[in-house]
UniProtKB/TrEMBL annotation:
This is DUF4177 domain-containing protein.
Length: 54
């Protein structure tokens, strides 16, 4: 089974890295990662992460 998640990072307090970390703790593995265009003035970074779990 595969799952896609868009990870966004603005700063240490405003991001969704905890969502990705939770999935990794549940046994999901990263299959691929692709950078996506940033937000206004490049302040926010977005990344498409494809995860897989057997």
């Amino acid at each position: 089974m595969q799952k896609a998640i868009v990870v966004q990072y603005y700063n240490d307090k405003k991001n969704n890295l905890s969502d990705l970390n939770q999935l990794l703790e549940e046994g999901w593995k990263v299959v691929s990662q692709s950078a996506m265009s940033g937000g206004e003035m490049g302040a926010t970074v977005y990344s498409l992460v494809i995860l897989e779990k057997n």
